[in-house]
Amino acid sequence: MPDSEVPQLTLLQISDLHFGPPYVERVGEAVLRIAPHLNPDAIIVSGDLTQRAKREQFEAAKAFLAQLPDVPQLVIPGNHDVPLFRLYERMTDPHGLYKEIIAPELNPVLRIRSAVITGLDSTAPHTAISNGRIFKSQLDNCARIFQEAPDDAIRIVVAHHHFAPAPDYLKDSIMPKAKRAMARFADLRVELILGGHLHRAYVGNSLDFYPGAHRDRGVIIAQCGTTTSRRGRGREAEKNSLNIIEFRTNTITISHYMYFTESDSFEPLSQHRFRRGNRPLTEGATVVH
Prior knowledge:
Layout: E1 9-14, H1 25-34, E2 42-46, H2 55-66, E3 73-76, H3 87-92, H4 96-102, E4 109-112, E5 115-120, H5 136-147, E6 154-159, H6 178-187, E7 192-195, E8 202-205, E9 220-223, E10 241-247, E11 251-260, E12 265-275
Parallel strand pairs: 1-2, 2-3, 5-6, 6-7, 7-9
Antiparallel strand pairs: 1-10, 4-5, 8-9, 10-11, 11-12
Helix pairs in contact: 2-4
């Protein structure tokens, strides 16, 4: 059964750290305590490391990331990681401090075990700083990377902004041309998209939002809430969360963890299991939502 099978790949997803005034230190300490016990093979940080893209905020974020388990990290910027009010800097060198302090690459690629994980910078600081944007050139590069990957590779995309709306009452706008991107990802056999930005978690499938040409699979979507700030929204207002993603031969399991003040710790809140592509589930397997 998949539950007894050792995962092929385990990812820890954190997002929207917002170092600066919104950052909650006790919650950050709880992340550092639990992370080693989750045994991730890699850590995904899906944007908004800072609140206002200031040097001291990036330095604090860098120090925090260095205290996480010593495994590969894939980190991408969010819209808060470019200066909003420092207009000249935003127009001339919007990612200068991010590249200097956090990582020089804005569209990183992580190859680990049987997985190829592609990060996409969706910040678009000159045109769509709030809702974000993925450009055709990024999709073309993404296609090249996945086309060079082994046929049986796990294919994952990470972007800060969301390609599909959260299924709740807040009615957030999606990225421009999100449907174009989702169709491309489905063609490329991407199995999972990881994102942040919305400050509350949700897990679903692209077929919930877009008809798509691949009705047999779609793309699984896992949005992470704000992991360490007081800026949670919707049903995660003033709450913090993170995700653990486990790939097995036939299934993907996404466990949603939330921070509880009473225990001063992150604890599992829900679990979602999906069949991988059109592979049959092993006998006895279930899907829990």
